[in-house]
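Hey, resending since the last one bounced:
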Amino acid sequence: MIRIRTRIANVEDATSISTIHAKSWKEAYKGLLPNKYLNEIKDTRWVDMITKGLIDNTMKAWIAIIEDEIIACTCIGDSRYKGYENQLELISIYVLPEYWNVGAGSLLIDEVLKYAEDNDYVEVGLWVLDGNNQAIRFYEKNGFLSNGDTISCTIGEKHTNEKRYIKKLI
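The structure tokens again:
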């Protein structure tokens, strides 16, 4: 049996977290975003953003580890979106594709929800790319429900939408 453990991430983990984001995007968003765009994503794309967020405490993160390998991560912070100011935002949660469906994402969601409850948040919200059915199933399995809100965005020159999912904690 695979033993997965989690811990709070630190600045030294920023490169690993960014790499997990990049590898996950390339697999999870196949068919949803242009291949050229996905293929050009560098492993270091999110290092500066993650480092800054962890240093200035606008972001918290956890990682999941098997043996000594970081295989998954989640990043959270106060919601950055108008109308959701009092929510904890699940900014991202990604697992290296070769470790999908081994339980790492569930362990990380548990950390996020525990943090939210311990810090008196009444809701956790997130945005999910329209068509990302694997992620939607994961969120719904963990008690998140669509509230019907959407935002339009352009990613890699493709116009798409993201849907808002919320989990009420009270």
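Residues 4-168 form a domain with the Aminopeptidase fold (CATH 3.40.630.30).

Sorry for the duplicate.
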